[in-house]
Amino acid sequence: MSLAAQSMRIAPTGSILPRISALFSTQRPASLMVRSLSLPFFPSLVLAVPASFHLGLPPLGSILEGIWESILKAVPKKKTSHMKKRHRQMAGKALKDVTSLCKCPSCGQTKRMHYLCPHCASTHKTGIFSLAPTPTSVISASGSSALHIHNTTEPSFPLQQSLEGAHKLGCHHVCTARDGPGNVFASVGFGSEIKVWRNNKESGKWELWWELPPSKSNGGDVWAVALSSDENYLAFTTSGGKIHVWDLTARERIRTYDTGSGSGSGTAAGSFAMAVDLSRDGKLTASGHENGGVYVFNNDTGKLAYSLSGLAKPVRAVAFSPGCKRLAAAGNAGVIALYDMVRGEHVQNLSALSTAGFNSWITSIDWNDTGDYLLSGSLDGRVRVWDVNREACVATHSESDGVLWSVRWLPKTERALAPGMGKGELFCAAGESKNITFYREATGI
Question: WD repeat positions in this chain (predicted)?
Answer without folding.
Answer: 215-256, 355-396
